[in-house]
């Protein structure tokens, strides 16, 4: 049996093809997560957060092989993003950005397994950020979603369209945090070919 792969099992949410905004109903999921603040291009905290997440994710992958659920493919990196001032995103004030970086976990990975994996990974990697990783359950529900192809800096016009055109035209308003899923490895992919899922939980204006 092939290992569980969230990109295969939940194609609508991890392998969409629409490059124009569309609403999907995102089910409840569980993640390993770590919180931080600062410019993702320059802040050491961001680098440490990503390294810690992958260290624990791969430890859980190997631990999963010994469970009834079995092996799984480590899911793409994801991020929830916000700022105290919304204009920090359009103005490029990246040092004030706040984030929660995530990796999706299969349903059979328990909180106890996550804590055990943290201890194992911490003993191997000596990365203090590992101790800050937490279990997170997220149920976004109705969400506007689009596949963005291009550099991260080119997301601004797409998000401007969402907040200044698409939502109002469809009688919607944002409810949760801006969510991104990184389908490409920026170390190996040209900026113009990066594939990123952009997602914004929404609700009806009269809801």
CA gyration radius, whole angstroms: 17 Å
Number of strands: 9
Provide mean pLDDT, rounded.
93
Helix content: 25-40%
Low-confidence stretches: none
By secondary-structure content and strand pairing, the structural class works out as alpha+beta
Strand content: 25-35%
Largest sheet composition = 9 strands, antiparallel
Shape: globular
| Cα distance spanning the termini | 44 Å
What's the helix count? 6
H/E series: HHEEHEHEHEEHEEE
In short:
The protein is α+β, with helices and mostly antiparallel strands. The protein contains six helices and nine strands, in the order ααββαβαβαββαβββ.
Task: Explain what the structure shows.
The chain is an alpha+beta fold and about 210 residues long. Helix content is about 30%, strand content about 30%. It is built from six helices and nine strands, in the order H-H-E-E-H-E-H-E-H-E-E-H-E-E-E. It has helices spanning about 5-10, 10-15, 45-65, 85-90, 110-125, 155-170, and strands at about 20-25, 30-35, 75-80, 100-105, 135-140, 140-150, 170-175, 180, 195-205. Strands 1, 2, 3, 4, 5, 6, 7, 8 and 9 form a nine-stranded antiparallel beta sheet that branches. Helix 3 packs across helix 5 (about 110-125). The chain starts with 5 loop residues before the first helix and ends with a strand.
Descriptive key words:
207 residues; 6 helices; globular; 30% helix; 29% strand; alpha+beta; nine-stranded antiparallel beta sheet; single chain
């Amino acid at each position: 049996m092939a290992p569980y792969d969230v990109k295969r099992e939940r194609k609508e949410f991890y392998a969409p093809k629409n490059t124009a905004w569309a609403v999907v109903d995102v089910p409840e999921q569980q993640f390993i997560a770590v919180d931080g603040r600062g410019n993702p291009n320059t802040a050491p905290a961001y680098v440490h957060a990503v390294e810690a997440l992958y260290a624990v994710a791969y430890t859980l992958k190997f631990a999963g092989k010994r469970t009834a659920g079995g092996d799984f493919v480590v899911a793409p990196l994801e991020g929830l993003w916000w700022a105290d001032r919304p204009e920090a995103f359009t103005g490029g004030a990246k040092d004030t950005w706040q984030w929660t970086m995530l990796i999706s976990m299969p349903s059979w990975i328990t909180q106890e397994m996550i804590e055990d994996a943290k201890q194992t990974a911490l003993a191997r990697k000596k990365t203090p950020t590992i101790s800050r990783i937490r279990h997170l359950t997220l149920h976004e529900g109705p969400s506007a979603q689009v596949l963005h192809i291009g550099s991260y800096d080119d997301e601004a016009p797409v998000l401007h369209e969402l907040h200044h055109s698409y939502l109002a035209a469809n009688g919607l308003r944002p409810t949760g945090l801006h969510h991104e899923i990184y389908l490409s490895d920026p170390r190996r992919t040209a900026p113009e070919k990066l594939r990123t899922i952009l997602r914004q939980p929404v609700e009806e204006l009269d809801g």
